Amino acid sequence: MRIAVHQPQFMPWLGYFDKMDKVDVFVLLDNVQFKKNEFQNRNKIKTSNNCIWLTVPVSFSFGDNISDVRIDNKHDWQKKHLHTIQTNYGKAMFFKDYQPALEELYKKQYAFLSLLNIDTINLIKETFSINTEVVTASSIPDLSEEPTERLLDICRHFNADTYLAGAGGKTYMECERFKDAGIKLLFQHFVHPEYKQVYGTFEPFMSAIDFIFNAGNNFDLVRELNV
């Protein structure tokens, strides 16, 4: 049993889904502190002028968990997002194929950021035909507050023998504790595929919707580079 854990991001990038695709269970760490100006309430798309952020306006207090962060629906952010996406991807090869599903998602009214993020993650996951089970950390009982022990608790909950960490995990994880717990620790090494975008030279690390609108749902392009 192989596990990976990541915070629920808004419309994540391809590397997020590569990590998901490589495990049996992908746990959304929704019960940790929200961090402003990261990827929890925004992500990047490619435009004719390099890239811009799609940002979900939020209302929160310092120390709030991601699951407690509310969306500031006083702003018509859905309409703004859809207009921005239409403007920048309307000429993309696969835009008309995948735009309706995204538009349906934006029609929903969300009170909490985590629920919106989970729906964007599941929409992209289904588009890529990734079959990994996705669960929220908040649904798992008795997790430690200490970061490394929390990850070990999640592994124990699922009787996992392998944990797949992100490439930057070595900088903050106590790796020896996984060995002591009898859990094999692996690190993701993601190679980003290059594909034709609507504008200019190729820009990596965009939201996965950039790949979908430009290259379709052919996630094998990612798998072939990340065996």
Describe the structure.
With 227 residues, the protein is of the alpha/beta class. It has one domain (2-225). 35% of the residues lie in helices and 16% in strands. The chain is built from eight helices and nine strands. The strands form three sheets. The chain has a five-stranded parallel sheet, with helices on both faces. The longest helix has 15 residues, at 113-127. The model has no long low-confidence stretch (mean pLDDT 96).
Strand content: 15-25%
Topology order in helix (H) and strand (E) letters: EHEEEEEHHHEHEHEHH
**Computed CA radius of gyration, to the nearest angstrom:** 18 Å
Question: Which structural class is indicated by helix and strand composition?
Answer: alpha/beta
Strand order of the largest sheet: 7-2-1-8-9
Please write out the topology.
Blueprint (H helix, E strand, L loop, with lengths): L1 E5 L7 H8 L3 E4 L13 E6 L2 E6 L2 E2 L10 E2 L5 H13 L5 H13 L5 H15 L5 E4 L10 H11 L4 E4 L9 H6 L3 E4 L20 H8 L4 H6 L2
Parallel strand pairs: 1-2, 1-8, 2-7, 8-9
Antiparallel strand pairs: 3-4, 5-6
Key descriptive features of the protein:
single chain, 227 residues, alpha/beta, five-stranded parallel beta sheet, two-stranded antiparallel ribbon, 8 helices
In short:
This protein is an alpha/beta fold and 227 residues long.
